[in-house]
Amino acid sequence: MNSYILVATGGALGAVLRFAISQMLETPWGTLTVNALGSLLLGICMAALASEMISEDVALLLGTGILGAFTTMSAFSIETIELWESTPSHAIGYAVLTILLCPLLALAGWKGYELTA
């Protein structure tokens, strides 16, 4: 299938999923949730691709498409600035938590997938 169609289809789904979660959870927790969950799932996706358990097309649909639209670093950046303006200590905590948690969850997804493959 055409790579652009895969990414666009996944992107549409990921954006809708992100919007749904942001409607359920208050800012900035909705953003933290999608970034953390997206990091975990992208770690699993990339491990599956590296071990040839999924094809490049599936990785484009899931990783670049769905998860690319699902995670929201731009929203994270704006929310950090907004938190800084009201409560700098919350902004620092939010930024540090996001920066540490998301890569750790991506690693957990990658390693956890390797253990089950």
What can you tell me about this protein's structure?
87% of the residues lie in helices and 0% in strands. The protein has one domain. It has five helices and no strands. The chain starts with a helix and ends with a helix. Helix 2 packs antiparallel against helix 3 and helix 4 packs antiparallel against helix 5. With 117 residues, it is mostly helical.
Give the class from helix and strand content and strand pairing: mainly alpha
Morphology call: globular
**Average of pLDDT:** 93
- Uncertain spans: none
H/E element order: HHHHH
Largest sheet: none
Count of separate structural domains: 1
Number of helices: 5
- Rg, please? 15 Å
Amino- and carboxy-terminal Cα gap: 26 Å
Residues in helix, %:
over 70%
Tally of extended strands? 0
Strand content: under 5%
Query: So what's the oligomer here?
Result: single chain
